[in-house]
User: Fold these one by one.
Assistant:
Number 1:
Amino acid sequence: MSTRALEGVRVLDFTHVLSGPIATYHLALQGADVIKVESATGDTMRHYSGHAHADAVSPSFASVNAGKRSVVLDLKKASDIESVRRLVAQSDVVVENFRPGVMERLGLGYEVCRALRPDLVYCSISGFGQNGSLRGNPAIDQIIQSMSGLMTLSGEPGSPSMRVGFPIVDTFTGVLAAHAITTSLLRRERTGEGEYLDVAMLDAAMNMMISVAGPCLAGGVRPRKQGNLGYSNSPTADTFPTGDGEITLGVVRQEQFAQLAAALGREDLMTDPRFADRLARQQNAVALRDEVIAALAPRSALEWEALFADRGVAASAVRDLPTALVHPHLDGRALKLASELPDGTPIQVLGPGYIAMHNAVPPPTRPPRLGEHTAEVLAQLGESVGR
Amino acid sequence: MSTRALEGVRVLDFTHVLSGPIATYHLALQGADVIKVESATGDTMRHYSGHAHADAVSPSFASVNAGKRSVVLDLKKASDIESVRRLVAQSDVVVENFRPGVMERLGLGYEVCRALRPDLVYCSISGFGQNGSLRGNPAIDQIIQSMSGLMTLSGEPGSPSMRVGFPIVDTFTGVLAAHAITTSLLRRERTGEGEYLDVAMLDAAMNMMISVAGPCLAGGVRPRKQGNLGYSNSPTADTFPTGDGEITLGVVRQEQFAQLAAALGREDLMTDPRFADRLARQQNAVALRDEVIAALAPRSALEWEALFADRGVAASAVRDLPTALVHPHLDGRALKLASELPDGTPIQVLGPGYIAMHNAVPPPTRPPRLGEHTAEVLAQLGESVGR
């Protein structure tokens, strides 16, 4: 196998729940040795959704903790803190997502760790960051969705505030943290210097919204809700009912509209002065939408999707996620990797989300049982394992 | 100034609109020399929203193209292709987001470029990837939102399919591509080997949904819409009306509920058997919501937010994005960087979305006029600039 990007990189991982574990999952996929430090009760995600899970590995936990080792240490016990410090000295990266100040109180703040390992890359993930007036405030994904403006961007004009229906800020923050850490490792490779990274969910959310926050900062452009109507404001870049199911069209330019009209068997739309050009179509958007809906009625969304694909019209049936995940197209995309639960049950986990030709990501090791690797990791430190 | 992570890294950037330019914007922020290759009419984002923009730099264009140089070349002209090949030989990274096959037809595919520069990192961004049955299909953000399942995750149970109201897939794809490129540059630094990266918006969308796609793959857990009710299913992790405006609460655990009850002046909720523990509160969610709404009515969302912050209750008023962007907390977060339009008008652009203590990101150079750097870049090649 070829050399992995993060081969030989040791990550000491004090994170729990979602943003931090996603960050270190991406590092593990690139070949890093991620040592997950857990309390005796473990990451709460081990039991996520309230049901009992075999080996304390819930599906949510499994999906972002495969490829890691688990070590149980008591961060309130002096001897265990001493073990942690020895681990820090042997690590390249520390990641934590406690509330700001907690690692310092534990005696594991950046300056302490840096003294143990001068070229350490230390990444703190928090809701609002390590400074500023909101620093101490508690935060979870939906608090940041609310604070950042994200809840006011989706839905029909005038509709109530609505969050994105899954913890998108946690996820984006995790990937941004993995990116920040990798960038810092590249810089360390080139300069020999370590780094302290302050990753905040609120900052990450703003960055995630760059397509609307950017124009707001650069030109005072205020975002507005527009339902499923696309970024282009073209009335044929929207979602429509069909005879069975919904379909989204991505028809913006004049030649695309001609393709759509032909595919619908409605070439007459091209000669209708109401729809003659992009501006006319926007001015007669309601009438055009009615025409498109009428034309789509005889077939199902999946039938139209296939027909439109043949005609070069950008279109997709609206799928639910479980259906989308089993689309045959994905089979060649290395998106899903084989893994298993500790009891041997086969599962799939997501890969890095892209394909690297010379550095293909192999399946990660299975998600660890709580404390499964405590003895082996401490033995590597040269300590007695029978403490 | 300290050495930047991507100092001395040259990126030849053939991307347009959004996902690709976001990827190379992140590289530019880390110190890369990004050369944006444009046609004589330029990236369509220069004119985005249909209005005339001074120097063909719309707010949308400015916000993701600051820090880059612009070179106009005609990729259908043999002499210009020859210039591009000479640029490739002097570049570390090539990024493109044409439809699969276009770069090959232009004579600029990976194998050709790799022959010119063996350790090249070449990143292709597309809707569905470079292989698979959907490879040739056109795609824009909302098509991928539809295909991936994303449109079925937000909103109240039973509500119509609704996209995330801004091009979230483009953005996530761009950041993931920047991460993939940086990871490959780290691997190149360690091994000397280049890379070919195949980044697809559909794959990226699945990865962005890892919090729901992961449990679906790992345990058959089907996601469901639940309005603003949080990931925890706790009825006090939700959004509520107040006397003026909405507020989101992130109250999940028992001690958090006690803090909330006290902050509301409703300690009686703690002794009410309907709300005694987490399970009881879920079973009596409607009654609890009514109690919370009644308790919140006397004050505004902003007043409650301040009061809850003092009491350690996770809460945020629902803000719109322009309001969120000027929150005083952000002033210390290095989120916004000073830039200007070509005519000197001061603007702000977003930084990388996190703070690196030893590698602070300076303001990028202003977004370029179309072709502003053609002469200087070609001069670096040793060519006549008067062609």
Number 2:
Amino acid sequence: MSIAPWRNAIARALHRNRSLVYARYLQLATVRSNGRPANRTVVFRGFLEDTNKLKFITDDRSEKVDQIQQQPWAEVCWYFPSTREQFRISGCLTLVGWDNFDPVLQQSRTTTWQELSDAARIQFAWPHPGKPRRMEEQKTFILPQPDPMQPLANFCLLLLDPVKVDHLELRGEPQNRWLYCYDDQQKEWFIQAINP
Amino acid sequence: MSIAPWRNAIARALHRNRSLVYARYLQLATVRSNGRPANRTVVFRGFLEDTNKLKFITDDRSEKVDQIQQQPWAEVCWYFPSTREQFRISGCLTLVGWDNFDPVLQQSRTTTWQELSDAARIQFAWPHPGKPRRMEEQKTFILPQPDPMQPLANFCLLLLDPVKVDHLELRGEPQNRWLYCYDDQQKEWFIQAINP
């Protein structure tokens, strides 16, 4: 696999925005079973090994897991504040849960778990996300740290395999915008400058 | 109309993040005609008069206009960096173009145009967004400023009428999350604390 041509632009944006911790936060849109969109912030966890797939994590009890199982297509919108540029990345999502038998993906799921902070890991031990909160039971959130080596069963690695990347630079004069499209037959990325 | 209960939380977040110009930027998810999601950054332009509708602007030549005409349901994801909180707002979109005959909405469209900066207004005079860019024709972007009083025909006001607001505070211990749902029969908002 070769590094996709849009990877350079992402690497540059990450570097130039490195002082902002939230430059690694982006918004993931999926589609609900009723055909309406859903949208939430997720954290970019790097690329999967020697692929162009973006890594995220999720709890298999979260609503997005059901949405993805029904409609795996997604679009992330990634805005970089310091450099005033946006990437819109469309592609197909893959969930890697405890029951995924691909050894490479399972290893990556484990490594991703090990790389998390304690604060990130403990959230997977919390009560069911999105369910009514029992305020009198504050203690349900006070838990021993889970094993830092072995992921909890509800921990999922989430992979986005891009097929289209729309890169907009607001700082240009007028502005610059490029569209990268993957041609599945030629196994190649094509780039085009488009109007902003 | 009464001010929805989640409006206070938004007002507080906007105030506490006021030093960041991009705290007014949020991500709007819609659904494409092929059933896949689309996602892009838009700028919050305030609330419509004495309603709880969020105002945005768009060019009627942009792809989202076709998407909205087919599927008006949307979800915006609004992340506030300084206070580390997120609002996910679901609702129905309304496009207000030059041919909308509601006098209140048309007046609001005109006022929104008048409140834009020159840099924002000129973009509506640019060549068709998303079409291949003719690099030799840089001059197609060098144009006289449009009339600051009278909107160009392709300028649209875009309104989001929320029915569900999911507010997550990452800073709490553990974290705090509230769900606001509008009950269409009782014409009232209901609030519930939910697990983060």
